[in-house]
Amino acid sequence: MNKLLMHPATKPAVFLLCLLPFARLAYGAFTDGLGANPAEFLIRATGDWTLRFICIVLAVTPLRVMSKWNALARYRRMLGLFAYFYVVLHLLCYSWFDMGFEWGDIAKDIAKRPFILVGFSAFVLLTPLAATSFNRAIKAMGAKRWQMLHKLVYLIAGLGLLHFFWMRAGKNNFAEVFVYAAIIAVLLAWRVWNYFANKRGKVKPASAGAVRTG
Amino acid sequence: LPGAKSAVPGAMSMEKVTDYKDASTYNNFYEFGTDKADPAKNAGTLKTRPWTVEVEGLVKKPGKYGIEDLLKLSAQEERIYRLRCVEGWSMVIPWVGYSLAELIKKVEPQGNARFVEFVTLADPKTMPFVGSRVLDWPYTEGLRMDEAMHPLTLLAFGMYGEVLPNQNGAPVRLVVPWKYGFKSAKSIVKIRFVEKEPSTAWNKAAANEYGFYSNVNPNVDHPRWSQATERRIGDGGGLFAKRRKTELFNGYEAQVGQLYAGMDLKKNY
């Protein structure tokens, strides 16, 4: 598996795979294939894919440690950037199709509605993480500070969930929210467990090397 | 299901009618699933015959009405109504039916009957999401007596000249065009005349978001989104069509405004 992950063609292949949801949405938008309410479809789908990429990126470290596929670390940064890519699309779709780029209305909407404020905060917090996703930034900041900053992703995952929960709360429709919550809870709980296991010296440190390799 | 053009004031909107495909595949009917596409996929199981509607409570002539009798109770009319969903989208739909008032007059409510409650089918055998915790089943709705008696309040059996598709609330539903769509109960099995304001499904689920009246009102926001504008499904330009301004009472103010004279619509949302 490590060999496959290190193969020069694998990373571009994963990159294209991550673009598939975008390609499908773009195709649907241009061929009228998104149902009766295409704007709502695009806003929801880009939100869903943001949350999915956050789950995927949070799964990298647990999977790497448990499977010993250390080459997985090479993919973490790209997956994180895809989460940012989809949240930017999400915000763009909302600003465009729901608000018609009326910036004053958008600002008011963000201030007035807690669920939009929470989602917007998650986007704002994700921005410095995306902006420091290149090697020079890590060098300039120092690995330790860089890592501290990128721990924000845990908070961002929580805010994203809360945003989704609140959106669905009006219609009491929590089934999907609970699925994402359960996945994120397991991925975060693993980290807590791993931290204490490390302290007791039973498991090799999980995070060593992760920063260097991305 | 043929219907003559209605002569009720306000009943014939001149706006472009929504495509049948959109009106029959983009639905909220939570008994069949919470996704908009679910009802069209899942409602095939609904059995609309035999069907009876029980009229009970404070009426002189309670009883069970078979759907065949209800269909013949008054002349079927076609009415083209705007439909505004609380979620911020809208359609224009040609319904077939007659004023609920026709039925109400027949069953002769008693003097102390001030509200009408509508109970809809909750059959776990044919409705896969009855039993989910989204709502308290059966789905119930209610109107004040004067709202129920208003000529625009429609007891509908068809749309687009045909009998109602299951996902749109077959075989008999309510259409109250100046209120958010969820007030228009689907697949009705019971009509009950009562003295006190009945509880309603969405009000029970989230009282601060869905009031008893739920009149379309651009000036009273939903706690989580604005109601000032709406997206007309199928509007030219598709994705890039601008949202429209929502009208007070969904544009039926001239017909129904007097029902709410002197009421604080912000409090009675």
UniProtKB/TrEMBL annotation, chain A:
Coiled coil: none
InterPro entries: Fe3_Rdtase_TM_dom (IPR013130), MsrQ-like (IPR022837)
Single GO MF descriptor: oxidoreductase activity, acting on diphenols and related substances as donors
Compartments in which it is found: Cell membrane; Membrane
Domain of life: Bacteria
Entry's Gene Ontology BP terms: protein repair
This protein's record includes keyword Electron transport: yes
Location of the Ferric oxidoreductase domain: 57-160
Cofactor(s) for this UniProt protein: FMN; heme b
Entry's cofactor comment: Binds 1 FMN per subunit. Binds 1 heme b (iron(II)-protoporphyrin IX) group per subunit.
Family: Belongs to the MsrQ family.
Function: Part of the MsrPQ system that repairs oxidized periplasmic proteins containing methionine sulfoxide residues (Met-O), using respiratory chain electrons. Thus protects these proteins from oxidative-stress damage caused by reactive species of oxygen and chlorine generated by the host defense mechanisms. MsrPQ is essential for the maintenance of envelope integrity under bleach stress, rescuing a wide series of structurally unrelated periplasmic proteins from methionine oxidation.
Protein name: Protein-methionine-sulfoxide reductase heme-binding subunit MsrQ
Organism per entry: Variovorax guangxiensis
From TrEMBL, chain B:
Self-association state and partner proteins as the record states: Heterodimer of a catalytic subunit (MsrP) and a heme-binding subunit (MsrQ).
Physiological role: Part of the MsrPQ system that repairs oxidized periplasmic proteins containing methionine sulfoxide residues (Met-O), using respiratory chain electrons. Thus protects these proteins from oxidative-stress damage caused by reactive species of oxygen and chlorine generated by the host defense mechanisms. MsrPQ is essential for the maintenance of envelope integrity under bleach stress, rescuing a wide series of structurally unrelated periplasmic proteins from methionine oxidation.
Stretches assigned to coiled coil: none
Catalytic activity: L-methionyl-[protein] + a quinone + H2O = L-methionyl-(R)-S-oxide-[protein] + a quinol; L-methionyl-[protein] + a quinone + H2O = L-methionyl-(S)-S-oxide-[protein] + a quinol
Protein name, per record: Protein-methionine-sulfoxide reductase catalytic subunit MsrP
Cofactor(s), by name: Mo-molybdopterin
Superkingdom of the organism of origin: Bacteria
Top EC class, one word: oxidoreductase
Signal in keyword set: yes
GO molecular function: metal ion binding; molybdopterin cofactor binding; oxidoreductase activity, acting on a sulfur group of donors, quinone or similar compound as acceptor
E.C. code: 1.8.5.-
Positions of Mo-molybdopterin binding: N27, Y30, E31, C85, T120, N168, R173, S184, A185, K186
Record domain Oxidoreductase molybdopterin-binding: where: 48-202
Cofactor binding summary note: Binds 1 Mo-molybdopterin (Mo-MPT) cofactor per subunit.
Keyword Mitochondrion: no
Swiss-Prot/TrEMBL keywords: Metal-binding, Molybdenum, Oxidoreductase, Signal
An example Gene Ontology biological process: protein repair
Organism: Variovorax guangxiensis
Sequence similarity: Belongs to the MsrP family.
PTM description: Predicted to be exported by the Tat system. The position of the signal peptide cleavage has not been experimentally proven.
